[in-house]
Amino acid sequence: MATNWLPHNLTEVGNGILAYLENKDISIEELVKHIPAPDFPLGGRIINQNNMLSCYKTGRGRVIVQARYEIETRAGKQLLVFKELPFGVNSETLLEEIDKLYTNGEITGIQAVRDESNKNGLRIVIELAKGGDIGSIVNKLYKHTKLQSNENFNQVALVDKVPTLLNLKQVIEIYVNHQIDIIVRETQFDLAKATARLNIVEGILVALEDIDNVIALIKASNSAAAARVQLAAKYKLNEDQTKAIVDMKLGKIAGLEKIEVQDEKKHLLQTISEGEAILNKEDNQIAILRLRLRAFVDKYGDARRTEIAQIEMTKEEKAAKIVEPEDVVVILTKGGHIKRVPTKNFRIQKRNGKGSKNKDDSIL
Question: 10 Å Cβ neighbour count for 194?
């Protein structure tokens, strides 16, 4: 079972979930306004923004990520400086790739490559030869190295134990349902705990109404079990109540303030009332989730690191981008043929020279 989930920005995801909570009929087109694209830890630039909607609608697709660069000058030399890398790219492997390319002559115009990364962050420096065409060098680097990489959406998850390909709205819907289930279970647990404690507190209040006789009854009993039986019979208390009273130290029973116990009862009744309101109304569950989500995003959310753009090129445009500019001579023949010859390969004919032509054609 293959699956690949890409990292996203917490603030954007939080805003998308909140938008869903406001309107469960929200479209994926509307959700993408809040969650426009993945956001990678090391930044970079996504260059196929127009594909994002399709990725989020189907749960599957491709994200093209480029490293962003700056141009610096040092000692009269131009430097290409990369402070960000595509997701999952190892800087050491990348340096080896670039070094091999310019050593083998596949990329010209590079003099040296080094890693100047330090505690302040990533810094891959490419020193350019004098007169090197920056645009062509950068585009060749994007084509031949991991400075540009493809990240695949494949949002497969186990839903009720079944592998399922999920779109953006389904992901949010499943997350929200899970969180609502958590809130319901938490509330049920707290409600059961408060109800059990209320039962004990009500038994203690009954005992406090006749505390002297309760203490005397416990002291006169042969065993804790006998004391519980007598308390249950005399004060109409249940098993949990009598056990709690008998298990308490006599000094604590005598020292209990009735007002203090009554305040606890009041607090428990409020907790139970609130818990029942949460369990009986889904809007209250959603309100709790909304508050928790906002607090979480406010505490941990940050700004987007990965730029989003639409600069994906066709094959022809990519080919043109990596051509280095050079001077050429363009030749047109009488037969209508046209060709270009690099200036460095074009020899000027000496005086009285015959030149070169084939028997059927000549230069016009």
Answer: 20
| Structure tokens, 75 | 């000692």
Q: Which 8-state DSSP code applies to residue 344?
A: G
pLDDT in tens, 299-308: 999 999 999 9
CA distance 33 to 28: 9
Residue of 306, 304, 278, 303 whose CA lies nearest to 292: 278
* Alpha-carbon span 339 to 358, nearest angstrom: 15
38 with 18: CB under 8 angstroms?
no
Among residues 333, 314, 6, 324, the alpha carbon closest in space to that of 152 is found at 6
- Between CA 223 and CA 87 the distance in angstroms is 71
Closest CA to 237 of 199, 196, 213, 203: 203
φ, ψ (nearest 5 deg) of residue 110: -110, 130
Cβ neighbors of 123 (< 8 A, separation 6 or more) are 81, 82, 83, 115, 116, 117
Closest CA to 12 of 61, 65, 56: 56
DSSP state of 74: E
What phi, psi does 149 have (nearest 5°)? -140, 160
Model confidence at 256, pLDDT cuts 50, 70, 90, reads: confident
Q: What's the pLDDT tens digit per position in 51-106?
A: 999 999 999 999 999 999 999 998 888 899 999 888 888 889 999 999 888 888 88
- For 88, the token pair is 């999952």
